Fold these 4 entries.
Entry 1:
Amino acid sequence: MKIVVRDSHRNLNRIDKALLADFFREVKGMNKEDSFSQAMFCSEYFEYEFAVKWFEVIAYNGFKVVGYLRCLRFPDDATKWYIGDVNVRKAFRRKGIASKMYETVFEVLKRYCDAKIVCASVSKENDPSLSLHKKFGFTDSYSPCTFKNFWFDPKESEYDKLLYRYYPVPDTDKTFDFIWPMFEGFLKTKEDEVPENEAKEMLNDLIAESLLGKEPLIAIFLGNDLAGIKLNYKGNTEEYIKPTETVKE
């Protein structure tokens, strides 16, 4: 199976149009004419109607399209993206295709530094979809999705996933000051109290070891904001996300 990411249908060749049309005929129950219209509809509609950045993820089995989804950035919020129109051919379901397409979405969104959250509209009656989204750490917002002018089934609610990105701390003279507030917050979650001077010495050691490649000290970002750290603390790898960035259950 091959996964392809495209930004637009606009430059599809004749063969690709036919492959997508064949896919839409099966998964959407369209006739031949409507399926070809659907294969060309997306770029015109989304680009001109919403003026949004978007891309699609297509799964191929040989020359056959077997899976499809679309991911769009919210028109009024550059930090938020929406996954929709997720479909897999019936004969290819339960083979991990939807999971691979979602994993591809997460990789693509790493390129957008402003991206903080990705959401999907999920019905509580759709057990496979619920399982898929819970598997990837989406949580129920208990509110309907609000992507501009889209209609959503009243039985659906928005499921959200925060898009954390992980980077080794940089080698600069500002690294300590950058990480210290987060490290201080982490220490407050521990039962053992550490004096400030010892805590600062501990952080300096962690930074030095990380820069030497011994035990990486990882800065966790949400969009362009530092949201947490991942570190080795007393022999255990621990991850700390500041409370203001957690999703409400």
Entry 2:
Amino acid sequence: MKAIGVIPARWGSTRFEGKILALLNGRPMIEHVWRQVKKAKLLEDVIIACDDERILKAAKDFGAKAVMTAKDHESGTDRIAEAAANVDVDVVVNIQGDEPLIDPRVIDSLADALLKDKTLSMATVIKRLANEEDLKNPNVVKAVVDQHKNALYFSRSPIPYNRAGKSFGQSVYYKHLGLYAYRKVFLLGFKKLPVSLLEAAEKLEQLRVLDAGYKIRTIETDHETIGVDTPEDLVRVQALLKGK
């Protein structure tokens, strides 16, 4: 296969345990994510990588392909690497299991970048920041890119620094969306890369890739993704789904 999607689905969550099976319109959140991902035209298969039997059962009940993975993975990247290890595929797209409004066109654009450019090992998604509060929020990761849209750096701090004193609307800032595509051979080797000082400082694993000298191509989108991190986020997404 050329490209597949893998959705890491973890039961534990500091702020919202079991959120992956929280109900939205009578269906578990992970089902909404899966249904959106299945609309992507370039993915030949979609796998849910579970760490809990409750998630595995729910996924199979609504017809998804699901596999059990180790509970002790430190990141979603490690989890999807295990799920994809024995799959004959070139490109693996990592889709967050807590974003039920994910746009399948964004997934396709990400997969397409690696399918068309065989020199790329990894790609991710960015979006222009729409408000100044997000620029200052350390939970919103900022990205700086070069003229070819390759990532230069990711940070929780406001970057680039506005020394010229321009107003927010006069400058361009990007936020990083947690959606990745990897060439499978690179994904399997990712865990072998040493944790870098930059990654340890910012708590951003993509910095391990840049620090090791690899390129990360960024794909710009204007679609806003909404992750569910708290019960309040779930209420917000529920309202948006009803609006649709």
Entry 3:
Amino acid sequence: MLHPPAMRLSPVLLSIALAGLTGEVLFEVYAWVISPALFGFALQPSNLVIAMTAKLTGISLSHSAAFVLHALIGSVGFGAVVYLTRRGLGLPVWATGLVAGVALWFIAQGLLAPFIGRSFMMDFGPYTQSSFIGHVGMTLIMAYALDALLTRMPRQTA
């Protein structure tokens, strides 16, 4: 069945979503398996989502709903951040992942955590350190996955 052009997902958007999903899944593996082994606790960004949603809307989300929301933001939004970092700055793949990861880590720990009443960068404690590894690792994976997907994409001619 043929779909009108508006119904098809562009190859670039599909690549962003697939790279984002790959990075997000591996972030969750890090958060729930590796972080506890390295730091003694799991990362739970759903707590940040719950607190922000309550502060901004007054709605109390469950941990499950907040987890799904963070996973969607991580997959689509963070994938888009990696893509825009690469396109906007023209950096090598590794630098794209590093810059995007540091930016997202800073937003989470330096801006959003204080917004919900926590200290700036959560005093650079173990949670913030683990969060750094998780965010940078995730965006490095996204950058390499996105690069692999986009370089396999056929070139379109006008």
Entry 4:
Amino acid sequence: MATGTRNKLVLRLVYSLIIAFFFGFLISEVSFQILTRNTEREVEIYEIKIPAGTSERVEKGFPIPTIPESMIFFEGDKIIVRNDDGVSHQLGPIWVPAGSTGTLTLEKPQTYSLACTFQPSKLMGLEVRPRLTNDIRFQGILAIGLPSGILIWLFSIVIFPLDSKKIEVNSNYEE
């Protein structure tokens, strides 16, 4: 392959990647903005208050209206369980004696189904979502830009082929 042809192909590849990464950036950022509204926030601390008389209500199968059966958090958030009931309670790995508090730090993104003594179902669902980081954004741009750039480059070669040296045909032949 001639040096001039190779240079043209490399230049075309660079232009294709620039175009693809620009559109990858646009697509990635627009989708992140739409899908992650209200997710870019600082670590929050949530307090769950177990009111007095909770154990009697749970034994009868009645829910506690102030405590939902499932909640959505983001990694790093903390749950403080304040037990004002006369009986000790449990939320997953934390044991909260009567009249005290316990803290649960949500470190890993996943869906949990925790043992919970202050719910009639004896379970509490927690969804822990990952925080949006610059690494995740970069991976989105790279996942769109790199394959798209290669495809644009290949299509440009097929649609707009490079000028190749014309082969001269000897027209001096005798009949």
